[in-house]
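User: two proteins, same treatment. go.

Assistant:
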Amino acid sequence: ESQKYEAVRWILVFAIGVSVGLVGLFVDFFVRLFTKFKFNLVGKSVEECSEKGCLAPSLFELLAFNMTFIFIASVLVLIEPVAASSGIPEIKSYLNGVKIPGIVQLRTFLCKAIGVLFTVAGGTTT
């Protein structure tokens, strides 16, 4: 009985580790994809405009991309307010027995992952 319980615990820990790793790969892949898309379009605009001497529209285009990405992340925080912070204090509190409504729900997890994705993509400058 005890060995069975320990085996289930280790399998659960392994599954959580693999899941978190896959979410990290998902976020990293899409941050790179959105950033590459953003800079390809803005780069083309800069090249076209540098010949004409109109750099300002290209910079406003970059600003529009960043503001759109950050807006999407902000809307996700409105959907699930618990996903707004880093999450470390909330998880520490939860593990210490403090019940925070919604802290371990799938909706919170999805809003947090997608919000991080758009926040990083909206703030990346290199």
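Protein 2:
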Amino acid sequence: MKFSGTFKLNDTTTEEVWLALSDPVMIENALPGCQFLVEVEDTDVDFDALREEHGDRDVEPTSDPETIAERAFEQGNHYAGVIGISIGPVNPTFETVVTIEERDQPYMEAGGEGSAGDSSFEMTAWMDLDATDDGVEVDWTAEAEVFGRIAQMGQRVINPAANQVVKRFFSSVQDEIREREIAEGGEVEQAESAESNDDDRGIVDRILGRSEGN
């Protein structure tokens, strides 16, 4: 199955959107049904242990670039989450592991898999940011193989559910950007002023996904 679309974020810039999407905590808060999203060492995950450790956590998003840099997504790293999704008459909760395959502003690619009882999926997703006159367009594509009970429902049921999740997610991203005053320039001003010395430039480069020599 293939899903794709474009979502428009108004009154913001690619740098601001990329900064927000670099923060796993912001993704956790914006993704519908997400109980937690945390970095793990490999793809063999003990979800019972993760639930015990992170199930009741309440971590606030931040506008501080140094904090985001410390916990930002990194290429090659793995992230585990538990996500509840409504698909037709069922409401599965997927245990999911995602690997960041490529991350270089304004492009990100991730691959992962998830399982929930008698259903599972494998997926690769791409995202690219494009500046417009009054905001940012996020072009996204996902290719997925779905197995089990959910697969039996077919694309006529799965596609609307997937598109609704994406729509709610990017709407929440827009709200997070505004609430954290990223769109007011505070985040960008901090990042720009940080470039006044080499140590702080490293913070900004890590957030933006830049590697040495680029």
